[in-house]
Amino acid sequence: MNYPDERSVSAKLFELAQAVMPGGNSRHSLAFSPYPLYAATGEGAVVQDVDGRSYIDCINNMSAAIHGHRHPDILAAVNRQLDRLVSVGLPTEVEIELAELMVERVDSVETIRFANSGTEALMFAARAARAFTGRSLVAKIEGGYHGSYDALDVSNKPSPDEWGDPRAPATVRESAGFTDNSVADTLVLPVNDVEATRALIAEHGHELAAVVTDPLVSRMGFLPLTDDYLQMLRTETERRCIVLIFDEVFSFRLGPQGAQGAVGIRPDLSTFGKIIGGGFPIGAVGGRRDIMDVFNHLPDGRPKVEHSGTFNANPVSMAAGIASLKLLDAAAFDHLARLGDQLRSGVDSILAELGMPGRMQGRASLAALILHDRPVTDYRTFYDGMVRTDAMRLMAAFHRRMLNRGVLHVFPAGFILSTPMTTDTIGRVLEAARASLREIRDETAKEA
User: Fold this and answer.
1) Residues known to be catalytic
2) Measured on CA atoms in the order 129, 130, 134, 139, is the torsion positive or negative?
3) Mean pLDDT by 10 residues, the chain (448 residues)
4) What is the pTM of this model?
5) Coil vs helix vs strand at 241
6) Which domains does the chain have, with CATH numbers?
7) Contact 280/320 with Cβ under 8 angstroms?
8) What are the residues whose beta carbons fall under 8 Å from the beta carbon of 179, sequence distance 6 or more?
């Protein structure tokens, strides 16, 4: 059975889903046409759908499943916790243990607090920065994604008729439902433009509470920010007492200390999620003790910033996170980086062999296929390359062909790897990629 097949169980489930959920799902990031696949089971690097087909999983729940599915150490930790306590209106010892692991691992994290998602972590990081500085404006890079918090969920995907001056980008609502104030409270910075960004920070420094960025930009095909750009952000924010926040929800995969360790920049606050929860819901914000103390309710019970939530530091997520981090030693990161290098260089070689434009982007265990030859240095060049070429159509065709060869990856062309994968696993992914790209090349030649 090939995808799509309207007789499939997945297709029928999608029909049922549309009757009870707008669009048939609860995560737009998982939607693709004409219907998504529905998962049934997972083991290691493999997922099986409800129709019984198996796939190498290069989605890994958008990076959360860094150890794949049902890792025995994580299952054992979760089962031990389930035998003791699932959910409670009291703190637990496992919360302290996970906090100690994070403080020990990440040099910039002196204290930390837990939430339920990366979105929550970023919301509270921005709120902490405002409380600490007494300022209201928050800056982010154009095209950067930082969850669904209004102040940061702007200018993620602006179009040319909206985005304005390249040296001073407009702040563009992500969708309907945003207030004027949420847009007014955010400054958008041009990606990798050192001098233009420096000028904007200087102009607005007196009202800027924070600059938020992910050093490896997930929504631009894992495009890295340049060393000069990151160093400028650190210098200019430090000079003006602006809180520098690194969004490490994705980029914590780059090494034991995340992207900040890889690039050698120490932020004031960092946000985490995904892999630190071992596949369970989690978020965290940590950093300088003096900034984090805005959450401190001691000694009089009145914190500057209230931070509560029924499932914050849920003991099951804490137990799974402890197991996940213990598994993520230097050897695990080295293994993942080698797999990422094998995938990126392998696809690059296939494209050259087939005479097709394109390349792989990314670092460590994160990779994205770009099916055009235009340079990508910022959001606008990324947009132009996708929209002003045939790249999006080709990548959609690639996605469908990879599904039919047993490889799941993020639509349209993202790959997120896991520790159970081996060089043989990546070899099978490359075989599927070669066959898929060859078909696309040959069909494109016939159309011409």
Assistant:
1) 145, 247, 274
2) positive
3) 93 98 95 96 98 98 98 98 97 98 98 98 98 98 95 94 96 90 92 98 98 96 97 98 98 96 98 98 98 96 95 98 98 98 98 97 97 96 92 95 98 96 98 98 90
4) 0.97
5) coil
6) 9-66+330-447 (3.90.1150.10), 72-327 (3.40.640.10)
7) yes
8) 150
